[in-house]
Each structure stands twice: as C-alpha cells, then as structure tokens.
Design a protein that fits this description.
Layout lengths: L10 H17 L8 E6 L6 E6 L2 E3 L2 E5 L6 H9 L1 E6 L2 E9 L5 H16 L12 H7 L5 E5 L1
Antiparallel strand pairs: 1-2, 1-5, 3-4, 4-7, 5-6, 6-7
C-alpha cells in the first residue's frame, strides 16, 4: 500500500544540496557514505530525473528506502519498476520490487543504523534501536524497494 506521507524538501535542498551531491557522487565519484544517484524516468513526461539516494546492503540484498515518504522518485519507480544508479560516471540499470510493510522493520532498522546521522529527522524520533512495534508503525510512511537481479 502506498505511503500517504511526504516531507517536501526545502528550496536549499532541491536547488543547492541535491544537485551538489549528485554532481560530487554521480560525476566525480567521490564517496559520500555510499550515496549514489538514482535516475528514474518520469511517469508522465518520460524525462529522466536524478536524486541522491543511500542504497542499503542487507543480508546479500540491496534496497532503496525513501526517508521522505511518497516522493516523486517513488511514484515514478512504482510505474517503471526500473532505474539507474550512478557513481562516478558508472551507471547500473536496476529493476525493483516494492517491499510489503510487514517486511520493512529489519530493513528500516538497518537503514537507520547506517544513515541516521543524515535521515533521522524524517523518521519521527524512531531510531535503529526502537522497538519492533515502532518500526512497524512507521513502515507505511517509508516506501522500500528491493533491487532485483
């Protein structure tokens, strides 16, 4: 079930921070804690749009988590089921499948353990050490996609 919640980024994030991170990670390939640029084709326009993401490696699988909720990249990738991950000019085309809410708690826990310093403000005070019930409660607010082979 799609998340209802969306935390819209501010002007600084959309016009300065995200483009700067996308350039540093996507073009220059400088590591920023594992960040990559996810490009997804627009569901209406067909144009490709890129945004920095933090793919998560967990138990031999990779995931994309949307800390802000129902973002444009989430809406677009639900339609296309494909995207491109780029680091330093190296691009990988990926296919994804959305993860059910009941499967999300361990993924969200690992994501928060890895990137809480960057994304904690989007999780309403729920952290990596939160009780399972808290992670289950917030799961619908954070779309998660498993990158498939």
């Amino acid at each position: 079930m799609p998340a209802e919640r969306y935390i819209r980024p501010g002007l600084f994030t959309t016009k300065v921070f995200n483009p700067l991170v996308a350039f540093v990670v996507g073009r220059l390939g400088l590591g920023l804690a594992g960040a990559q640029v996810l490009s997804v084709q627009g569901r209406k326009s067909g144009a490709w749009h890129g945004t920095p993401v933090n793919p998560l490696q967990l138990d031999g699988r990779r995931y994309l988590v949307s800390p802000r909720g129902e973002t444009q990249w989430v809406r677009n990738i639900r339609v296309s089921r494909t995207g491109r991950l780029t680091v330093g000019g190296r691009t990988e085309t990926v296919r994804v499948e959305e993860v059910a809410d009941r499967e999300k708690p361990p993924i969200l826990r690992a994501y928060l353990a890895r990137w809480a310093w960057e994304v904690n403000q989007f999780f309403g005070g729920v952290g990596a050490n939160a009780a399972e019930e808290q992670l289950t409660r917030i799961a619908p607010d954070h779309p998660v996609f498993r990158i498939t082979p």
